[in-house]
Design brief:
Blueprint: H1 3-11, H2 16-34, E1 37-40, H3 42-54, E2 66-70, H4 97-104, E3 108-113, H5 147-154, E4 160-164, H6 171-177, E5 180-183, E6 204-208, H7 211-221, E7 251-254, H8 265-280, E8 284-287, H9 296-311, H10 332-343, H11 346-359, H12 365-388, E9 391-395, H13 411-416, H14 422-427, E10 431-438, E11 444-450, H15 456-468
Parallel strand pairs: 2-3, 2-4, 7-8, 7-9
Antiparallel strand pairs: 1-3, 4-6, 5-6, 5-10, 9-11, 10-11
Helix pairs in contact: 2-3, 5-6, 7-15, 9-11, 9-12
The structure holds glutamine.
């Protein structure tokens, strides 16, 4: 069920308890084959649903709606692990800003979803608890790093979920699982209580079946928060009101030169067909250029690792989670070393080392500083493109969902999957992925639209208009249950 259908049922008198019970039942049957969740908070969710039913009159826009959260979003009293051994046993003493906002709107948190450790990855295979599976083909990845949230929505376990997106971690799994994923403009949604990966890139956003549902979620979670120093004070429009279906005259920029290499045929043809749909609705296609977009991957993997190496310094065995057992004679240094060696997985260690290297005295100018300079060039590319276009269209990913294990031995291949998504994070621009087709093996394909700073409304309007003329988002995977 979509969020919209569910809220209509709830408004018509369905009890939150009934809805939450149905959702928990679905989780029980689908979880064994999908593994979307790290923690299911069944008892808490039912208690909360009962309280909401008792207080029926005070309903917010998500009154009684079950929501799943990526497990890097802090929840007071509920373990939050970032899928890392180093946070085993960590129970946050406070709720993230988005959790407070969701609950104030009446949402019921039903659990915490699987991710790549500290959100570092594109497949959930870097989770210390093992990967989640793609509901469309359980031998394949749901994408990552918010793979659990995407899979939970795709498998009908929850109507909506939250993820975080540092280099594509909402849009890529959304594309691979056949759902909508929105990365808002940097600063739109408070990062207070989000476990930091790369602070100049991180942003929280929703998964849903439709752009209309994502719009509702956006309005609930977006807004200024003085507890996040990068939180924007820009006014938040009612984006649901912008969903008029009208895209007449909207200029959709297509960076043809950037779309050539390494893109699957199935992706190219679904992308071309999706442009035709927008055109038939009155949008105007224009050719644009993004000359520096090809540098996105190296720039992203320099900046993201640099910031991660700094952010992850706090996991020292003193303040949070795991601490290694010490032998007689061990001192503070051994405690730090052993804790971090035991607590972090291979990919996280790789990134801490890369990031430390690119920030080190002899290499800072050649790598980190250079990456920041190219980041500025990329931002200028987009500024110029937005003089000719109102939105920019690309595929979300170069391929449909790949097999579990297919890229785990080759980190570079894994990184290359992010070619179309990292630019929005490096520039701060909002971007959305919308289901736009299926491969011959019935694997979902995503269309990515990128908008101007703070213009989520235009993004959502175009995505919603597209969904009015297509049915890809209405197909559900046939789960063995
Ligand atoms: N796949 C990218 C990475 O591995 C992006 C991750 C993310 O957006 N959190 O860093």
């Amino acid at each position: 069920m979509t969020l919209r259908e569910l809220t209509i049922q709830l408004a018509d008198g369905a009890s939150a308890v009934t809805i939450v019970e149905a959702c928990l039942e679905r989780i029980k049957t689908a979880e064994p084959s999908i593994g979307a969740f790290i923690t299911v908070t069944a008892e808490r969710a039912l208690d909360r649903a009962r309280a909401l039913d008792a207080a029926r009159a005070k309903g917010g826009p998500l009154h009684g709606v079950p929501v799943a959260l990526k497990d890097n979003i802090c929840t007071a009293g509920v373990p939050t692990t970032a899928a890392s051994k180093i946070l085993r046993g960590f129970i946050p003493p406070y709720d993230a800003a988005v959790v407070q906002r969701l609950e104030a709107a009446g949402a019921v948190i039903v659990g915490k979803t699987n991710l790549d450790e500290f959100a570092m990855g594109s497949s959930t295979e870097n989770s210390s608890l093992g990967p989640s599976k793609n509901p469309w083909d359980v031998t394949r990845t749901p994408g990552g790093s918010s793979g659990g949230s995407a899979a939970a929505v795709a498998a009908g376990m929850v109507p909506v979920a939250l993820g975080s997106d540092t280099g594509g971690s909402i849009r890529q799994p959304a594309a691979l699982c056949g759902v909508v994923g929105l990365k808002p403009t940097y600063g739109r949604v408070s990062r207070y209580g989000l476990i930091a990966f790369a602070s100049s890139l991180d942003q929280i956003g929703p998964f849903a079946h439709t752009a209309a549902d994502a719009a509702v979620m956006f309005n609930v979670i977006a807004g200024h928060d003085p507890r996040d120093a990068t939180s924007s004070t820009e006014a938040i429009p009612d984006v649901s009101a912008a969903l008029t279906g009208d895209v007449k005259g909207v200029r959709v920029g297509v960076p043809r030169a950037f779309l050539g290499e390494g893109v699957d045929d199935a992706i190219s043809s679904a992308f071309a067909a999706s442009l035709d749909v927008l055109k038939a609705r009155g949008a105007v296609l224009v050719d644009i250029e993004l000359p520096h977009a090809g540098y996105g991957i190296p720039v992203y993997y320099l900046i993201a690792t640099a910031e991660a190496s700094s952010n992850l310094a706090r996991y020292d065995g003193v303040r949070y989670g795991h601490r290694a057992a010490l032998a007689a004679g061990d001192g503070l240094r051994e405690m730090y070393e052993r804790t971090r060696d035991e607590g972090f997985g291979a990919e996280v260690k790789r990134r801490i080392m890369l990031g430390t290297y690119v920030l080190s005295a002899g290499y800072y100018d050649a790598y980190y500083l250079k990456a920041q300079q190219v980041r500025t060039l990329l931002r200028r590319d987009y500024e110029q493109a937005f003089e000719r276009a109102d939105l920019i269209a690309t595929p979300t990913t170069p391929t449909p969902a790949f097999k579990l294990g297919e890229k785990t031995s080759d980190p570079l291949q894994m990184y290359l999957n992010d070619i179309f998504t990292v630019s929005a994070n490096l520039t701060g621009l909002p971007a959305i992925s919308v289901p736009c087709g299926f491969s011959r093996d019935d694997l979902p394909i995503g269309l990515q639209l990128t908008g101007r700073m703070f213009d989520e409304a235009s993004l959502l309007r175009a995505a919603d208009a597209y969904q009015r003329d297509t049915t890809f988002h209405t197909r559900a995977p046939a789960l063995a249950d």
